Amino acid sequence: MKFAPSLFDVRNLFFTRQGNEILKLITFTIPPGEYCAIIGPNGGGKTTLIRLLLGLEKPSSGTISLFGTPQAKFRAWHRIGYVPQRSALVDASFPATVREVVAMGRYALRGLFGFESAEDKEAIAEAMELMGISDLSNRLIGHLSGGQRQRVMIARALSSRPEVLIVDEPNTGVDIESQHRFYELLRHLNRTKSVSILFITHDIGVIADDIHRVLFVNQTLLLSQNPHEMIRCDEMSRLYGNPSHVVCHNH
After folding, report:
1. What per-residue confidence (pLDDT) applies to 28?
2. 155-189: per-residue pLDDT in tens?
């Protein structure tokens, strides 16, 4: 049997900004195939943790390995798809078509000025078809609805055919129906396409039956491999420090 290294291996991570300790003593491992929810209060360091994993911030101390490779030596960034917070909020005058935006996801593989290969074209078309936006190919992204723009941004992340998809609360400005389609897509990617998922969310109840573990981030980290245990009302109230009511939605 071939050994598959962890997607992320984080050890004793600290991050300080302007003398303020944002994260401390963060240690966890994410194996292949995982669907992991990242939760915690606003300002607790969730997005900072993701930025550290992606190399967009540098830790004050500690180590991060990706796919078994120390982060400083890691170059295969196309293996990680990223949908940042508020990605669906696009200026109406932004002069790019849906296909052009999706194609941006291939830049890590071929470079900004490289020519599109047949593989690039196939991957772009595949991502657009998966997200149900092929018919929007020539539309300007700024003219789309919030739900449509969300699907475009996810297609951009998927066009590199990543092994792990990181999404940071992408539902801002998106209608309820589009949110539910988004959750169904994540479930499909994880179960059918074997894409690992790291998902920052405040709406953990809606994905309670899908996730394998929960990372609760509030400067330090609490990891649970029993999501239903963690999302009990009493447990969430203890973690957030105020009364919380958890509603689990049936799919």
Report:
1. 93
2. 999 999 999 999 987 666 567 777 788 888 889 99
> What does the block give as tokens for 84?
């940042």
Better-predicted residue by pLDDT, 108 or 21: 21
Question: Would you call 149 helix, strand, or coil by DSSP?
Answer: helix
83-108: average pLDDT: 81
Between vectors from CA 50 to CA 84 and to CA 243, what angle results, nearest 5°? 90
pTM: 0.83
Integer Cα distance of 6 and 14 in angstroms: 20
User: Strands 61-66 and 164-168: what pairing?
Assistant: unpaired
Q: Give the E-state strand segments of the chain in sequence order.
A: 8-17, 20-30, 35-39, 61-66, 69-70, 80-83, 164-168, 196-200, 213-218, 220-224
Give the bridge partners for 113, in sequence order.
none
Pairing of strands 61-66, 213-218: unpaired
Write the single-letter amino acid at 148. Answer: Q
Strand order in the sheet with 69-70: 20-30, 8-17, 61-66, 69-70
